[in-house]
Every structure is written in C-alpha cells, then in structure tokens.
UniProtKB/TrEMBL annotation:
The keyword Nucleotide-binding applies. It comes from Heminiphilus faecis. It comes from the Bacteria. GO terms for molecular function: ATP binding. InterPro entries: ATPase_dom (IPR011579), P-loop_NTPase (IPR027417). Residues 4-207 form the ATPase domain. SUPFAM superfamilies: P-loop containing nucleoside triphosphate hydrolases (SSF52540). The keyword Nucleotide-binding applies. PANTHER family: ATPASE. Signal peptide: none annotated. Keywords: ATP-binding, Nucleotide-binding. Pfam families: ATPase_2 (PF01637). This is ATP-binding protein.
Length: 474
C-alpha cells in the first residue's frame, strides 16, 4: 500500500500514458522507498527489470543481466562480452514483445557502472539510438548512490545531456505521512509517540517498517539499536558507504556539523573537518544536500559566501548523540532514560529540527502558505554590551514581517512567566538592533500542547502553533 507520493505517482502514470518514449530517473537516499514506489505503481508489470549487484565485477553484472533476460523470455545465445552487446540483446528482446507500452526498470544503476566497464556509453546509446526513437518505451532508472545519479544522469554532460524527461527526487515522509503509515501497519502509536519516533528515524519508511506493534516505542528502539543483535546497529556506516564510494570526507563534514546546531560556513567546515581548500568541498556539500542530510541557508544580513550548512537528518543526529563512540552494553538503555535529563534535553533539540523540517505546515497554520519565506536559526555571542541571544526559528517573510518562533517541547501545556516573557522581548530587541531589520516582528510560540492561558500568553504572543499543526497535510 502506497502512502503519500501522490505527485510522484502522477508523474509516473503520465509518463506511461505518453504517446512518446520517456526516460525517468528516480533518486534519493537509501531506504527511502524508490524501488517500492515503482513496483507498486506498475504492480510488477514490467517488460524487463534488472537490479545492479553491489560490489560485483563487470563480468558478473553482465552474466546476471543476461540470465535475467533469459528468465524473462529472451531466446538469444551466449553471454554478452560487454554492455554494448548486453543492451543490444535487450533491444532484440523488447522488439519481440507484443504492441503496447513497455516498461524497462533498471534499479541500482550506479552499481552497474563498474571501473572500466564502459557502461555509460552503452547505456547512452541504448536510449539515444534505439529507445528514444520509438514510441513505446518507458525507461525508469533508480539509484541510492545519489552523487552518481546526479553527476552521471541528472547533470550528464555527455550523450544524456538534456535527454532526461522526468527526475523524481524522493523525499522522506513528513509527520502526516508517518501517521498514515503507522496506521496502515497497525502500529498503536499516539501523536507524541509518532513525534518521538520521528526524532529517531526521521521520515524513512524502511525504519518505520521495522517497528513491532507488540512492543512499546522505547522497547522497539532498544531492540533496533541497543539489543544484543540490533538490526540497525551498523546502519549509519552502511548508509553513508552505500551513498558515496569514498565516504570518508562526507563523514568528516557530517561529524563537524553535528557539533554546531545552527550550522557552519564553508570556512568553518574546512577548519573543523580538516579538509583541503579545493573545489571538492562544493561537490561534497552538494551531494549531502541532495541526499537530504544537510541544508544550505542564508542568515539575515549575511553575504552569499557566508551561507551556513546545517545538519538536519534526524537519524544521523540520533546516532551521534547516543551511539557514536559509546560502548553501550545495556539492551534496555532507551527504556531506562525516558525520564532522564539527557532524554528531555535531546527531545527539545530534536523538536526544533522537526519544526524546521515542517516549515510548510507551520506556514499553513499561520495562514501564510502563499508567502515566500526563508527559515533559519539565529545566534549572537555575548559581548560587553549585551548577554547574547539565541532564537530557535525565524521565518523571514517577503511581506515585510518576521515570525520569531520560540519552540518548547513538554508533556503538557507550557507556561510563560514574567522572566521568560522578558527573555523573549530581549531577544526580539537584540535581533532588531543587530540585524537592523525594519520588518515587523511577530512573536510566535510552537509547543507540544499549547500554552497555559495567562496575561503573558494572551497579551504578548501573536500566534501559537501546536504539535498537532505539524501533522497537517501541507
């Protein structure tokens, strides 16, 4: 059963219904559901489908490609010696099929492109010289190695330049989609539990599929990460090694960014990750951004060259906080820390990230969905003139207003007292003073369960957002 993905489903169906041959590329991080999407949309009604093999030689790939062709009805002879011959066999097989649209699905395409395999010229020739000249081929390619997909397919400067008809960047589920998915597999989770699961797994469908409905959420997390044989114990290393052939510099960047909540400039990344000052950093950052691990944003008043790169992947941040460098032998660790300060502090920070990732839902709740915005955190260090300040989330709007958002995660309605109200006002004053913004500042509270009604919440807060608002379908 497909949850969400309405836009992607529509794109695939439109490509199938076209009177011309179409070439579609689907990319996204590991475990995001690329293969599942294609198989569900077409119900396995493929003219031909093949999935590249990890760490296989070109000879092994060609042998498996040929055997797959044979299993699906090809009557040809000997094994192909190269990819040119392999794709020629595919052409012969497809030409022998009855009239009608023929869906060719090549999964994990990057794995087929081995060293000195000459895969790409053969693949380009298959599409350019044969498939695109027909009217009955829908070619769909997928790959978890996002950097390869972007370089070799989306931004190809060779034979596939401008030949791609559709590109689908599959994104993680939002809270609304996670709630729908949890219900579809009968997980008895309330919204607070879904929120806390999202803090760990993000919106990666595969991780959610591992949850056992007979266990509580803390028990599930113990089993998956802290048990004797945890299913996701090595997921972090496998995740990055599957996406990037040389994962070390990417991990160095991620490790550096994990240390600073609001993000770092390029110069700070170079210093903290101990990287060379060359053009490779741009590629690394673009790859990480395409995978959804980081985001690039411009803080108010800063120059383009001082853009910040912020780590936003929930699973990665969970790993660094509770697993990296820790030899935890307690199989019930997560269950035991549920009332501890380390858990409560982490929930507060993770809730801030969730709000950032659900800015469209926040905008919808505020009634500003149609307004162009930029979202970012803001911090200034203490000086002799002021005590410094940190703002959780700023929504900088094109209609000459800024929502200054304070984010609080708690088990019940949050109470604003005199001291806290003064703190918010001081932040707003300092922000206006240092940024010299002339926009109106609207004080906005984002909380788990709303605010306790008192003079401060009713007379000083311009708008309130609750966790329920983040579950909207925006």
């Amino acid at each position: 059963m497909l949850i969400g993905r309405e836009k992607e489903i529509q794109e695939l169906r439109q490509a199938y219904d076209s009177d011309e041959s179409k070439f579609v590329a689907i990319f996204g991080r590991r475990r995001i559901g690329k293969t599942y999407l294609v198989r569900e949309v077409f119900q396995d009604n493929f003219a031909f489908t093949y999935s590249g093999m990890a760490q296989a030689s070109t000879k092994e790939q060609l042998q498996r490609f040929y055997l797959t062709l044979k299993s699906q009805g090809f009557k040809g002879g000997a094994y192909p010696n190269n990819w040119i011959e392999a794709f020629y066999m595919l052409e012969q097989y497809l030409e022998g099929l009855p009239e009608g649209k023929k869906v060719v699905f090549l999964d994990e395409l990057p794995w087929m492109d081995g060293p000195k395999s000459s895969f790409m010229p053969a693949f380009e020739n298959f599409w350019n010289a044969w498939a695109s000249a027909r009217k009955d081929i829908l070619l769909i390619v997928c790959g978890s190695a996002t950097s390869w997909m972007v370089k070799k397919i989306l931004k190809n400067r060779g034979g596939l330049h401008n030949r791609l008809n559709n590109q689908i960047h599959l994104q993680p589920f939002n809270l609304h989609e996670c709630e729908l998915y949890a219900k579809s597999i009968n997980l008895p989770l309330e919204r607070q539990e879904i929120m806390e699961a999202y803090m760990v797994f993000g919106g990666i469908p595969f991780y959610w599929s591992l949850l056992n409905k007979s266990l509580s959420l803390p028990q599930n997390i113990d089993t998956l990460f802290f048990g004797r044989t945890p299913k996701l114990g090595n997921e972090f290393k496998e995740l990055y090694s599957s996406l990037f052939k040389q994962s070390e510099p990417y991990l160095d960047i991620i490790t550096a960014l994990a240390k600073k909540k609001i993000g770092m400039t390029r110069e700070e990344i170079i210093t903290n990750a101990n990287l060379a000052t060359n053009g490779q950093l741009t590629k690394y950052l673009e790859d990480l951004e395409n995978c959804g691990f980081i985001r690039r944003y411009q803080a108010i008043g800063s120059k383009t060259k001082n853009a910040l790169y912020q780590l936003i992947d929930n699973f990665t941040l969970f790993y660094f906080k509770f697993m990296e460098g820790k030899k935890n032998t307690d199989a019930n660790y997560w269950s035991k820390i549920q009332m501890a300060s380390i858990f409560n502090t982490w929930c507060g920070l993770a809730f801030e990230r969730i709000c950032l990732l659900h800015s469209e839902q926040i905008k919808k709740a505020l009634g500003i969905s149609g307004v162009i915005t930029t979202e970012y955190s803001w911090r200034t260090a203490a000086t002799d003139e002021h005590s410094g300040a940190q703002i959780d989330l700023l929504i900088d709007r094109s209609d000459k207003a800024i929502n200054l958002c304070e984010i609080k995660y708690s088990d019940g309605p949050y109470t604003i007292d005199k001291k806290y109200m003064e703190n918010i006002r001081n932040k707003a004053t300092l922000f206006r003073q240092l940024t010299k913004t002339r926009k109106g500042i609207a004080l906005t509270m984002i909380t788990s369960y709303g605010l306790v009604k008192n003079s401060y919440s009713m007379n000083n807060i311009h708008s309130q957002i609750t966790a329920d608002d983040l579950f909207m379908d925006a």
